[in-house]
Amino acid sequence: MVRNVTLTIDHKSVTVPENTTILEAARSVNINIPTLCYLKDINEIGACRICCVEVEGMERLVPACDNVVADGMVVFTNSAKAREARRINLRLILSHHDTSCTNCTRSGNCTLQQLANDFNMRGTHFPKKLRHEAVDYSTPLIRENDKCVQCLRCIQVCENVQSVKIWDLLGTGSRTVVDASYNRRIQDTECTYCGQCITHCPTAALRERDDTGLVFDAIDDPNTVTVAQVAPAVRAAWAEQFGLDSEFATPKRMVAALRELGFNYVFDTDFAADLTIMEEGSEFIERFTHKDQYQWPMFTSCCPGWVRFVKSQYPELTDNLSTAKSPQQMFGAVAKSYFAEKVGIDPKRLFVVSIMPCVSKKSECALPTMKNDAGDPDVDVVITTRELVRMLRCSMIDPASLEESSFDSPLGSGTGAAVIFGATGGVMDAALRSAYYLVTGENPDPDAFTAVRGMQGWKEASFDIPGAGTVRTAVVSGLGNTRKLMEAIASGHVQYDFVEVMACPGGCIAGAGTVQPPEKSRRLLEQYKAKAPKSNPADSDYTEYLDIICEDEQSWDPVARH
Q: What is the pLDDT of residue 175?
């Protein structure tokens, strides 16, 4: 039985369960203690000392995030001693930090900047000691040590949430830095570019590579025809930074903003998601009905972070991946072939821009195997939701003032099954829906496969598909959960036929390039699904493209492609 303890915080009597930290106890009564390095259940190590508080009877201040309460404890969170300590600690941190905030991508959304403003930091106070290391732009994940505050969030998230362990503390004393482990370059590590370290970095020490300049150059080039494709998770999150409510921030108003930005064509990636899942569903039924010819389970392949993970961590299971392209790459292939032919444009003049919530997509589009017969990339540039916001602001575009505009046709519509790709379980739901149709010739009940939906990190369910049999499925998101699942499969503790994997916890809606809480995006995607006129991928207006794409892929080596 959990025992409660009573203490006093800033003259307020507080009763909380034992083993509660001082920080959480204070928050329970709406007393705010500033933090920098703290992440609940992930990083509670008191590294930054910004949360230090005064405890009666103790000579030294203690960090509130990793000290638990005790009966009768008297805590002062805002005493003169605590405030002065925080100011000193902030000055020390700022002395090792590049404070060129005006050209920083996190300006206005930086915890350190906010704390410096809150504590009225003016001037440097201590001599600056910056490393001035060159920044490597060859990977989509950028690290700047001069902006690192050594909070260790990236280390903890990468190790304890994603289980990849890319980051580590290197050096000793004043020379200690956070960098890629074993003194490696990022591109030489097992990094999946999931970007969860970016999401949890309180400054811009970690960020995605900014490719907006390439997009502006293409838009400004009169000889280039620019094509934008927008992922489902983007339509659910793009307006968060403009303060628009969900009723006003519609996908059509997003389209209007992209046209105002200068794109010649704006398409919905949903149509390609329908094709992807039709191909994946077809492939699963082929494997499932010829089980002795394949390794099991079959894994989805639309998440490039997961694909990089399985290649580096479980290469023996690479053949278990679906051979289907991701929706992003399928769109690019169709845009630079059949769409270009339909509108009479030389494919070499087309510049395809993917707007994604994902950093790993930047790496995917650059793969040598993601090129057409002419040697040109199917997708030229990937920008994140965050980069899109910066482009709109840079162009002085106010989405609230724009009239709605529809996606271009063809390739401008998708089904409700494609919309839910953005959240964990959405791909599996759509794949099973496709498989059911392919076997029976009928659409399943709209709620037939909802058991695979939800934000849990690991879900499993079995479904009967008439004419095929019972399909054992699992849905997992977050690479830490993925590793647990893979080890359970390897040990024989679980057996599945079909597994969906998303590298980011919660799916694409939690990608490193997004700007909105995942749960809010998930609810919006469900709303878009409900409004979609068609619910099954087989009902897509573009199924005619599927045979063409499959023919193109027959000669590919899926292992090499991934």
A: 82
pLDDT of residue 436: 86
**Total number of domains in the chain:** 4
Q: Do both 498 and 381 map to the same domain?
A: no
CA distances (Å), origin 1, targets 17, 18, 24, 135: 10, 11, 20, 53
* Sequence-ordered list of residues with C-beta below 8 angstroms from that of 533, at least 6 positions apart, any chain: none
3-class DSSP state of 530: helix
Among all chains, which residue has been given the structure tokens 């694909």?
A: 307
pLDDT for 212: 96
Q: Is 19 left (phi over 0), alpha (psi -120 to 50) or beta?
A: left
The confidence score (pLDDT) of residue 453 equals: 84
Range of the domain at 8: 4-78
In 3D space, the residue among 304, 303, 284 whose CA is nearest the CA of residue 294 turns out to be 284
498 and 541 part of one domain: yes
Give pLDDT, residue 446: 75
Specify the pLDDT at position 94.
92
pLDDT in tens, 312-340: 999 999 999 999 889 999 899 989 988 89
Q: Give the whole-angstrom CA distance, residue 162 versus residue 405.
A: 39
Q: What pLDDT, on a 0 to 100 scale, did the predictor assign at position 119?
A: 92
CATH number at residue 155: 3.30.70.20
| CA 263 – CA 225 distance, rounded (Å) | 8
> What element of type H or E holds 442?
none
Q: Locate all alpha helices (DSSP H) within 97-193, ordered by sequence.
A: 111-118, 153-156
Determine, yes or no, domain membership for 184: yes
Separation CA 146–CA 239 (nearest Å): 31
pTM of the model: 0.89
Provide the 3-class DSSP secondary structure of residue 206: strand
The pLDDT, as a whole number, for residue 427 is 86
Q: Which stretches of the chain drop beneath a pLDDT of 50? A: 548-562
- 179 with 218, same domain? no
Q: What is the structure's pLDDT at 251?
A: 86
Contact (CB, 8 A) for 308 and 360: yes
Look at residue 158 and tell me if it is in a domain: yes
Do residues 263 and 391 share a domain?
yes
pLDDT at 420: 64
Is residue 352 domain-shared with residue 231, that is, in the same domain? yes
Longest dimension (CA), the chain: 80
Q: Do residue 110 and residue 173 come from a single domain? A: yes
Q: For position 68, which CATH number holds?
A: 3.10.20.740
- Return the closest-CA partner of residue 368 out of 560, 527, 191, 213: 560
Let me know the angle formed at the C-alpha of 420 by 512 and 433, rounded to the nearest 5 degrees: 140
Q: Give dist(CA 230, CA 357) in Å, integer.
A: 10
The 3-state DSSP class for residue 473 equals strand
Write down which residue in 49, 78, 107 finishes a domain.
78
CA distance linking residue 203 with residue 561, whole number of Å: 35
Decide which of 379, 413, 447 is a domain's last residue.
Answer: 413
